[in-house]
Amino acid sequence: MRDCIYGLNRKVPLLDGSMVRYVNLDNAASTPPLKNVVDGINALAPYYSSVHRGTGFKSRLCTEAYDRAHTVIAEFVGADLNINTVIFVKNATEAINKLAHRLKTPEDHVVITTRMEHHSNDLPWRYNHNTVHVRATVDGRFDEVHFDSLLKEYKGKIALVSITGASNVTGYIQPIHHLAEKVHAAGAKIMIDAAQLAPHRKIDMRPDDDPGHLDFLAIAGHKMYAPYGTGALIGPKSEFLDSAPDYCGGGTVHMVTPDEVYWAGMPDRDEAGSPNVMGAIAMAIAAETLMKKGLDLIAEHERELTSYALEKLGAIEGVTVYGETDPLRASEKVGVIPFNLQDVDHALLAAIAGYEFGVGVRNGCFCAHPYVVELLQLEGSEIHKWRNQFKNGDKTGMPGMVRMSFGCYSNHEDVDRLLEVLEKVKMNEYSGKYYQLPETGEFLPENYIDDFSDHWKYPDSF
C-alpha cells in the first residue's frame, strides 16, 4: 500500500534545519490521499461541470460519474439501493447531525449512545433528543451489561441507538451486528458511526430481514484516503421521504408552485444545492481501491503492526497505554493507541515529536472529553480544577494523551521513529526550548517560525 499513497516520502524541516522523511501517525484524524484518487480527480478536472439537468457533454459526464459514486459507496458498505439511500454530505459529523435533525421522536422516547463516542456522535443527540449514555468499563470498553439494562428500561421508547463502530481514542471495535440484534429485538433501530471503522475493516450493512442488519451508517472520505470534503449518510429511503429536508433549495424539488412544493426523491431531496462532485467521486475511487486491495488483508497487516507497537511500548519504562495493552488482543481494535509518558506533558511530547523528529501525532482529548477523562481516572477535585482553569481561558496543563494511529501504509519503521522520540525525551535528549500558549495549550519552540514558502504557497494571481 505504500506505493499507493501520495506524498509518502515527502521530507520536512526540523528545528535544527535538517530535513527528514515525514512520518504520519495521525491517520485517525485524516489520512493522506491515494495516488489514484488524486490522479482520478486531476483527470476529471478538465470536464468539471454542474450535475443533473445539464445538456452539455461535460455536464452529462459529471452526472454519470457523480451518480455512480452513490452506487460505489453502497457497494462498499453492503447497502441495497432498492431500499436504502446514500446521501453525500461534508463529513461524518454532518451525516450524524442530519440524521439527528431528521429523526422525529415522541417526547417520552430516548436516543441511546455511549460514553465512548466522539463528540460528533454525542452532541447532535444531546441537543435534539432525550439522550442516555451507556457506560464504559474501567479499561474503556463498551459496557454491554449496562447497555442491556438500558434496553430493558426503555423498551418501547427507544428512538435510536447510535454507537461508534471503532473508537477514535482506544481503537476498540464494537460487535455491531451482535448489538444490532439486541436493538432490533427491543423494537428500535441502530446507527453506526463508522468514520473510524470504514478505512480499517470491511463493512456489511446486511439485508433488512437479517436481525443483525445496520439501519444507518455514517462514513467520511477524509479518513479513507480521499481528502476532498465528502462524507456519506446511508439509511432507509423511507426515513427521509416522510418529511421535508433540513436544507431546502435547488435540486431538492420536482416542482414548486406559489402554494405548494413537490419534493424530489432520494438522495436528491437531501443533497441541496450544487454538490461536491469532486469529493463524492474521490470518495468512490478510494472505496473501490480499498475493496480491490482487500480490507481483510489491510486488517491483518494492521493487527500485526498494532501488536508490534503495543509490545514495544510496554517495554518502555514510564509509558502508560490506555485501553487494550495486550499485543495478543490487537485484533480487537483498529490501529489506534493512546498513551502518556511519565512526567512529560502530552502536548510537549507531541510538539517535540513534530518539531525535532518529523513525526506527526495528535494529543489532547481527541474530541471525546468524557471518555478520555474516564480513561485517565481523574478525581472529582482534579476535574473541577481544570474546568475552572479552562473557563478562565487557561489551557496549560490540561489533561490528555498522545495518540498514534495507523493507516494501511504504516510500517514498523514508522513505529520505531516514534519509539525513538520517547526514548530521547525520557533522557531529555532534545534541543528545543518550548513555551506553552495558555489560550490553546500547545507548546511552541522558542525563536522558531515555520517557513512554509518552500513547500506550498498560494499560486500567484493571473
Number of helical elements: 13
In terms of DSSP E residues, the strand content is 15-25%
The shape, in one word, is globular
Q: Would you tell me the overall average pLDDT?
A: 96
- The level of helicity is 25-40%
Distance between the termini: 38 Å
CATH class annotation of the largest domain: Alpha Beta
Identify low-pLDDT runs. Answer: none
Task: Describe the overall structure.
The protein is an alpha/beta fold. The chain folds into 2 domains: 2-28 and 294-445, Aspartate Aminotransferase, domain 1, CATH 3.90.1150.10; 37-292, Aspartate Aminotransferase, domain 2. The protein is built from 13 helices and 19 strands. The protein has helices at residues 35-44, 57-77, 92-102, 123-126, 144-153, 176-185, 238-241, 277-293, 295-314, 346-357, 369-375, 380-391, 412-426, and strands spanning 11-13, 19-21, 23-24, 84-89, 110-114, 131-134, 158-164, 190-193, 216-220, 231-236, 253-256, 261-263, 319-321, 336-341, 359-360, 362-364, 401-405, 434-436, 443-445. It has a 7-stranded mixed β-sheet with strand order 4-10-9-8-7-5-6, with helices on both faces. The protein has a 4-stranded antiparallel β-sheet with strand order 13-14-17-16, covered by helices on one side. It has a two-stranded antiparallel sheet with strand order 1-2. Strand 1 and strand 2 form a beta hairpin. Helix 2 packs across helix 8 (277-293). The longest helix is centred in the N-terminal third of the chain and has 21 residues, at 57-77. The model has no long low-confidence stretch (mean pLDDT 96).
